[in-house]
Amino acid sequence: MIDLFLLVILLICVITDVRSRKIYNKVIYPALLIGFLFHFAVSGWEGISHSFIGFLIGFALLLIPYMMRGMGAGDVKLLALVGALKGGAFVFDSFIYMALVGGVMSVFILLVRSGALQWAVYSLPGFRNRKAYNFLSLGHALKVKFPYGVAIAAGTVFALLAERVPTIW
């Protein structure tokens, strides 16, 4: 039940993050309250402490990137919400998957903005003619900005799937 609730919240946050580059407090705060109340109702004070520890871990994982202006406050609050809903171990797994997805997204965006993908597609015949191409004018391309809520949501979905699939190791 909490997984479905989390997926709905993630979907809302991805849509708003892609459209307006914002993850709204009016989505995060009520979901956070519902999460705390749910864990209290199911497990009492132990559930609330489990939820609060997950919240703190999720918050702490993105605090330094936020302070270095590499991440928005909404991203930090979204990962903290994931921790509050699913706990500390889960949010750490989500963080690992999120970092992998975010890295792949960053590389892809960098390749597109730098022209490297276009160069690869259009110049493969050029290797036969030994033509040289200057495709890495990376001035603005190195500043990769994208809605990181997408990576957080994808990482969380991967972590949810990993919970249900038997591990290889």
Your description of this structure?
The chain has 169 residues and is an all-alpha fold. It has one domain (2-164). The chain has six helices and no strands. The protein is elongated and about 65 Å long. Mean pLDDT is 86; it is low at 130-136. One of its GO terms (molecular function) is aspartic-type endopeptidase activity. Residues 4-106 form the Prepilin type IV endopeptidase peptidase domain. This is Type IV prepilin peptidase TadV/CpaA. It comes from Bacillus thermotolerans (Quasibacillus thermotolerans). One of its GO terms (cellular component) is plasma membrane.
Enumerate how many helices there are, as a single number: 6
- Weakly predicted, low-confidence segments: 130-136
**Could you tell me the number of beta strands?**
0
Distance between the termini: 28 Å
SSE succession? HHHHHH
Q: Rounded to an integer, what's the Rg over CA atoms? A: 20 Å
**Form type:** elongated
Number of domains: 1
Approximately how much helix is present in the residues? over 70%
Q: Tell me the strand percentage band.
A: under 5%
Give a quick account of the main beta sheet: strands, pairing sense, barrel closure: none
- Average residue pLDDT: 86
Query: Structural class given helices, strands, pairing?
Result: mainly alpha
Pfam family, one: Peptidase_A24
Transmembrane segments: 44-66, 106-125, 146-162
Organism: Bacillus thermotolerans (Quasibacillus thermotolerans)
Domain Prepilin type IV endopeptidase peptidase: 4-106
